Amino acid sequence: MSRTNTRLEPAPDGSDESPDAPDAATPPPPPEYTGTHSRELTSLRGGDHTATRMTGALGLPQSDATHTLIAPLEAGELPNVAAIRGLRLDQLLLVTTGALVIIIVGLLALLSAKTTETALTVASDRFTQRLQAQARELGQTVSHTLALSSATSLRDNNYAFLTEVARSIIADNRNILRVQMFDAESQLVADSDPTAKLGSASGGRTAERRWASAFFNGQPVFEFQEPLDYGSLGGKGVVVISYSLEDLQKQLHEVEESNRAAVRANTVRILQLGLAFVVLAGVIAAYQSRRITRPLGALTGKVMQLAAGDLSARAGTAPGAGREVTTLGVVFNHMAERIKVLLEDVRAKAQLEREVSLARTVQETLLPGRDAVTVGPLRLAGLVVPADACGGDWWFRAALDDRRVVIGIGDVTGHGLSTSLVATSATSGFASAMTLREPSQVHAQMLITALNVTLANVGRGEHQMSSALAVIDVYNGQIDYAAGGHPAAAVFNRHSGQMASLPARGPLLGASVASQFTSRQAQLRPGDIVVWYTDGLTEARDGANRLYGTQRLAAALQANAHLPADALRDALLADVRAYSAGQPQRDDITVIVAEFSPAPTP
After folding, report:
1. pLDDT of the residue at 479
2. Can you list the domains of the chain with their CATH numbers?
3. Which of 397, 442, 434 is nearest to 48 (CA)?
4. Which residues touch 565 (CB under 8 Å, ≥6 apart)?
5. DSSP character string of 316-339
6. Mean pLDDT of 41-68
7. Are 599 and 527 in contact (CB under 8 A)?
8. DSSP 4
9. Residue 409 forms beta bridges with which residues?
């Protein structure tokens, strides 16, 4: 079971000698390790400046701001609007209006023709009924008169006189085609038809008044029958008159022809009137459609100008075109102004993106690469995962001399372009501080003090930074470290399973050039793993807004302590990503892993 200490073993000094302690005056020669450590130190001095950007391999969210936005300064090729087929809007309005008017006029003409025809048909039926009534009345009157006047002659058996009377009636009235008289025994006693045979039976005619439709010589007739009372004991005789319907049919035919002519004339008048309406409606529709579509055509031209890149295109007023067209012009002018402003903003943003990209490139050039570096028994691996295109975190590694390595980490308050510039300046100042003095005079307190002065001068009190620095002797494991407002590095020993830390107190860097800092010393043991980090790691939050925290970091460190430095670094970052899955990265995250694994003493 692991236990946590507040600090590592204190570094041995000259008064506390042990058999295993090397002579402080004459340090022993470096032991032989696999590989050429001189080349490794040289690589540290040269600074592997490969860009250290987090990739999708670890699955951490990337900032959208890393993509440079190019302003659309050129409109590009316009679509071939000439290839668009179909009627123009004014033609469509004209055709639609004309078709609608024609349909309406046609329906009205059809309705009027049907109404006229119905009215004339009703009038013709009434006329026909009236003529038929007149014909019946005339026939019944003639038959009744003839029956009264013929009774005496029939009683006297004066059949010749009756025949003459029948023929005289035919001669006087051309509509009466035949006159017949029958006695009480239904024998034909008189007939206007010379070919008729008198004395023939009537075929069972009854002595009653009636009329019926019949045919005579192929012509339709009305047969009017009237009883003839001549005082016979056998009963009454019968007078039969056949009244021709030819004149009636001729009059009806004339009436029908007149009705059809009236319907035709009325239809022609309605069609002429409808044609006049169609022409008038077409003229009005053409005028109104042009009045409406002309401003739309002008607006279309302005839209094409705007699409071609002419941002000065504006729509004019459109009097009489309707409120919608006027509103469309006003909205188009507003949109054109907005597009102009937005394009200017896009250009400005594109310029800013290019500047940010340049700043990011400079920052990444100054940061070490993500590949692990081995110096003797010490293996180093670090990485910065910015929350924005440019981050405020930084880390540094460099060889101080043939056996000492300097490690630095910092977190400028905030994140973004300004903090990245401050972080870049801090990194440059940190590297300069190492070269201004002899390697033997460089120690953690001097480095952090120089870094504080640089930051205070660059940030002018507006930007502050937490930082932790360490100078490690890669052969005996002595570590000289200092910090200002930065989380203490976590230390875990693979062999004992113990957890410890490298605590160091000090104010935030950059607040004042007069700030004081102290350094502390400790002794690394074989199997020790030191993890420096920024608070962006421990302050990552999950969906319930809970912090990742140092306890989870310690658990992840213990669970993955068997991995080499670079794999352990990636595992810690992956654990943070899994913890805050679905949540945006709120701060820059930096992790440095130092693995101290000296060869066992023979």
Report:
1. 96
2. 85-300 (3.30.450.20), 311-366 (no CATH), 371-596 (3.60.40.10)
3. 397
4. 372, 379, 380, 381, 529, 593, 594, 595
5. ---TTS-HHHHHHHHHHHHHHHHH
6. 40
7. no
8. B
9. 395, 468
Q: What does the alpha-carbon distance between residue 394 and residue 540 come to, in Å, rounded to a whole number?
A: 18
Beta strand ranges found along 267-392 (DSSP E): 373-375, 378-385
pLDDT tens digits, one per residue of 3-43? 334 345 444 444 344 434 444 444 444 544 443 343 344 44
Q: What is the pLDDT of residue 32?
A: 43
Which tokens belong to 205?
A: 């005619």
Predicted local confidence at residue 158, as pLDDT: 81
Is 532:497 a contact under the CB 8 Å cutoff?
Answer: no
- Cα–Cα distances (Å) from 97 to 105, 271, 280, 284, in that order, read 12, 18, 11, 10
Q: What is the pTM of this model?
A: 0.52
Length of the chain: 602
Q: Which residue has the higher pLDDT, 496 or 165?
A: 496
Q: Which two tokens stand for residue 178?
A: 């035949």
Contact between 428 and 401 (Cβ < 8 Å) = no
Among 112-116, 352-356, 467-471, 531-535, where is mean pLDDT lowest?
352-356
Q: What are 275's two structure tokens?
A: 């044609």
Q: What is the DSSP letter of 5?
A: -
pLDDT at 559: 95
Q: Which residues pair with 468 in a beta bridge?
A: 409, 483
Round to whole Å and give the CA distance between 335 and 338: 5
Residue 458 has pLDDT above 70, yes or no: yes
List Cβ<8 Å contacts ≥24 apart for 120-123: 120/259, 120/262, 120/263, 121/259, 123/259
Q: Which helix (H) or strand (E) holds 26?
A: none
- CA 517 centroid distance within chain: 60
- DSSP one-letter string for 562-601: TS-HHHHHHHHHHHHHHHTTTSPP-S-EEEEEEEE-PPPP
CA pair distance 242, 226, nearest whole angstrom: 12
* pLDDT-based confidence at residue 104 (cuts at 50, 70, 90): confident
Q: Is the pLDDT of residue 383 over 70?
A: yes
Structure token pair of residue 290 = 């042009």
Other Cβ atoms less than 10 A from the Cβ of 164: the count is 14
- Percent above pLDDT 90 for the chain: 24
Instruction: Note whether 158 and 165 are within 8 A (CB).
Output: no
Q: What is the structure's pLDDT at 356?
A: 67
Residue 213 amino acid letter? S
Q: Largest Cα–Cα distance in the chain? A: 192
